[in-house]
Amino acid sequence: MSSREKIPHVVVSRLPIYLRALEHARQEGLTCISSQELSERLGISAAQIRKDLSMFGEYGKQGRGYPIAALIEALRRHLHIDRVWDVVLVGVGDLGHALARYKGFANRGFRIAMAFDKDPERIGTQAGDLVVEDVRLLARRVQEAAIKIGMIATPAAAAQEVANLLVFAGVKAILNYAPIHLTVPDDVRVEYLDPVIPLQRMTYYLA
Amino acid sequence: MSSREKIPHVVVSRLPIYLRALEHARQEGLTCISSQELSERLGISAAQIRKDLSMFGEYGKQGRGYPIAALIEALRRHLHIDRVWDVVLVGVGDLGHALARYKGFANRGFRIAMAFDKDPERIGTQAGDLVVEDVRLLARRVQEAAIKIGMIATPAAAAQEVANLLVFAGVKAILNYAPIHLTVPDDVRVEYLDPVIPLQRMTYYLA
Q1: Which of A71, B19, B81, B174 could disulfide-link to B109, CB 3.0 to 4.6 Å?
Q2: For the domain B85-197, what is the CATH superfamily, name and number?
Q3: Residue ranges of domains in chain B
Q4: Crossing angle (nearest 10°) for helices A35-42 and A46-54
Q5: What average pLDDT does the segment A79-102 reach?
Q6: What are phi and psi of A164, to 5 degrees?
Q7: What φ, ψ does residue A77 adopt, rounded to 5°?
Q8: Distance CA B30, CA B67 (A)
Q9: What's the whole-number average pLDDT of chain A?
Q10: From the list A99, A101, A148, which residue is nearest B206 (CB)?
Q11: Which of A167, A175, A203 best tests the B interface by mutation, with the highest count of B CBs <10 A?
Q12: Nearby residues of B139 by Cβ (< 8 Å), 6 or more positions away
C-alpha cells in the first residue's frame, strides 16, 4: 500500500484480530494457515479474510494458505508495532494497578512507561514496576519523553480533564476506560473500553 | 419493534452508546436533547442517530429534540436492562479484583454475583463484597442461580476451558478479557475486551 488512506477503517479494525490469531497459530507450531482455518477461529468469513489480507499483498498461496511468519511481520509493520510504544497511564486505582501489572502488553507493541495520579496517597507508591507520579508533572514529563499514547483509568468525572491534559502534552491516541465519551481534536484518536457497553450489547439478545 | 431480528446488529451495537450519552445529559439536568447535540457528543452523524433511534418509535419531535427520560426508558427496555443481571466472574487476579470492586456496573444493569478462581491461595479470600469460590463448584452454583452472563478475567491459556465450563453451566453471554478468541456454540455471544486490540487500531494511524 502506498497510501494509508486506502484501507477502510473497518478493515484496519480487523487487522489486530488477524494478528492475534496468527500469533496464537505460530505458538501452536503452525507455519501456514488457510483462510478457512482462520475463519473458523475468528468467526469472520473466509472470503472476508482473503479480501482484507489481499490489501497487504499476495501472501496467500492457493491450496497452501498463508505463511504465518511473513504475514505476522507484514501486519506488525502496517500496524506500526514493529517497535515498542511507550504509554502513559493516568489513574492508578484498582484498574490502573491491574493495567500497570498486566503482562500482555510487552510482546504486542506496548509498554506502560509512566503512571500518574492526583491522589497524594497514591503518588510515590509502586504500580507494577513504576512509581506513581503527581499528575501535575504529567504535561512536562510526557512532552519530554514524546509519548504519543495515553490510557485513562480515572473515574468518569475526571476523564475529560485528563484527556485535555494528555492532548496538551502531545498525545495522539487515547485508550479510555472511563465510562464517558471524550471530546478531542480531530487529529487525536480515542478508543473506549467501558465494560458495560459490550454487556448491554449482549443483553439485547438475551430473553 | 415486534421482532428483535429486525434491528441490524450494527445499530444494536450503538444503542448502549446512545444510552450512556443520554444518562450523562440527564445527570447534567437536561430534559430534552437534539440529534445534533448528541452527534457532537458522540462523533456519530445526526442523520445516523435519527435513523437509528427512529427504529424505536417516534420519540424525537422536530425542533424540540428527544425527551431524555422517555428515550432512556425505551432504550433500557429494548436492551433488557430494565432489570439487574447477575454476572459470574472467573479469574480473580489484579483485573478480576478491579472488576469485583468496580462501581460502574450497579446503575447500568449488572451485578457481579459470584467470583471463582482455581488458585487455592485465592479461594476463600475477599474480592469486593464477594468471597472467591473454587472454580470446581462453578457449574453447579451457576446453574442453580440461573446466571446467564459470565466474565472471563483469567490468563489466555485458561480462557477456552473456562468458556466451556460457563457454556455447560448455561451462560449465554460472555465478556472475555483474556487475549484469545473463544469458540462457543451459536446460541452463545462473546464480546472481547483485550486492550491491545484498540491500541493497535490506533497505532496504525500514528506516524
Answers
A1: B81
A2: NAD(P)-binding Rossmann-like Domain (3.40.50.720)
A3: 4-78, 85-197
A4: 120
A5: 95
A6: -60, -45
A7: -65, -45
A8: 9
A9: 92
A10: A148
A11: A203
A12: B165, B168, B169
Asked if domains B4-78 and B85-197 share a fold, the reply is no
C-alpha cell at A23: 500469533
Task: Name the closest residue on chain A to residue B84, using Cα atoms.
Answer: A203
Q: Which of B79, B97, B98 is the closest to A200 by Cβ?
A: B79
- Per residue in B148-172, pLDDT tens? 999 999 999 999 999 999 999 999 9
Q: Within chain A, where are the H helices?
A: 9-12, 15-27, 35-42, 46-54, 68-78, 94-101, 138-145, 156-168, 196-203
Q: How confident is the model at residue B64 (pLDDT cuts 50, 70, 90)?
A: confident
| Chain B residues in contact with A74 (beta carbon < 8 A) | none
**Would the CA dihedral through B104, B108, B113, B115 be positive or negative?**
negative
Q: Can you name the CATH fold of A4-78?
A: Arc Repressor Mutant, subunit A (1.10.10)
Report the pLDDT averaged over residues A190-198.
93
CA distance A90 to chain B (A): 15
- In Å, how far are A42, A59, A68, A83, B133 from A73, measured between CA atoms? 20, 11, 9, 12, 42
Compute CA distances A207 → A40, A198, B56, whole Å.
27, 17, 18
All cell numbers assigned to A123: 503518588
Residues from chain B that touch A81, judged by Cβ atoms under 8 A, are 200, 203
- Strand order, beta sheet including A133-134: A133-134, A110-117, A85-90, A149-152, A173-176, A189-192
Q: Which amino acid is located at B187 in the chain?
A: D
Is a pLDDT exceeding 90 seen at residue B61? no
Cell match 472467591: residue?
A: B132
Q: In degrees to the nearest 10, what's the CA dihedral of A91, A97, A100, A105?
A: -110
Cell numbers of A37, please? 482455518
Write down the pLDDT at residue A2: 43
Among candidates A15, A94, A206 on the partner chain, residue whose Cβ is nearest the Cβ of B173: A206
